[in-house]
Design a protein that fits this description.
2 domains, 10% strand, elongated, 222 residues, four-stranded mixed beta sheet, 59% helix, alpha/beta
Length: 222
């Protein structure tokens, strides 16, 4: 996702932003925030039930098609045989859809946007709590989190920053980040976001003379 040049530029941008602010910026880039295996399972179950529903709505059509495929003539279908056909069809549909959903691009395409947003936010919060929350003296940590597969980003600030800056203020940083990402420039997008965040931090949390760098400047790739 990132080249060595990107990594160095991001680290330099963080250092420059922190040079004028008491804020501590943490940057994380991840290929994907969740596997969405539960979504694949839900789709597979839904397709299996749809197959059963279709068989229930038009049994004559589907049983006639099966007779034609198997070369049967005026076959007498017993309840047990019909149930066996229904279970076989449901299992085949379930396994086929599950196999298709093993392909990540399709799984991501069929995952509803609200689910992706919620999973990215949850993962960003987890990373923030581990890597930034409460880890600075004045609770001045802020996380810029980018999840590539979902094309989503999060900016989460610790208590001292959140008390002075509303979440809407980070809109410019998010726009700068995602604009560059859409153009295929991941490193430049992170640098642009860091610069925007740094400007806000400088305004609301200017650097004190005794301020120390408490969190790493390098980008974290997970």
């Amino acid at each position: 996702m990132l080249t060595d040049t990107d990594r160095q530029q991001i680290a330099d941008a963080v250092a420059a932003a922190e040079a004028a602010s008491a804020g501590e910026i943490v940057t994380i880039v991840t290929p994907q925030s969740d596997t969405y295996r539960d979504v694949a399972l839900a789709w597979s179950i839904s397709i299996a039930f749809l197959a059963l529903a279709a068989l229930e709505l038009a049994p004559g059509f589907y049983l006639g098609m099966i007779e034609h495929m198997l070369g049967l003539w005026a076959h007498e279908w017993t309840p047990r045989a019909v149930l066996g056909i229904a279970l076989t069809v449901a299992v085949i549909k379930f396994l086929a859809m599950l196999l298709l959903m093993a392909w990540r691009p399709l799984r991501l395409l069929l995952t509803p946007a609200p689910i992706k947003s919620a999973r990215v936010h949850a993962r960003a919060l987890t990373c923030f709590r581990i890597g930034a929350e409460g880890r600075t003296t004045g609770r001045t940590g802020i996380l810029i989190y980018l999840s590539m597969a979902e094309h989503r980003a999060e900016i989460i600030a610790d208590e001292a920053i959140a008390s002075k800056v509303s979440p809407e203020v980070w809109g410019d940083a998010m726009h700068a980040l995602l604009s560059e990402i859409r153009a295929g420039r991941v490193g430049s997008g992170m640098v642009a976001a860091i610069q925007k965040v740094g400007a806000v931090l400088t305004e609301h949390l200017p650097r004190a003379e005794d301020d120390q760098n408490e969190l790493p400047d390098r980008v974290i790739e997970v």
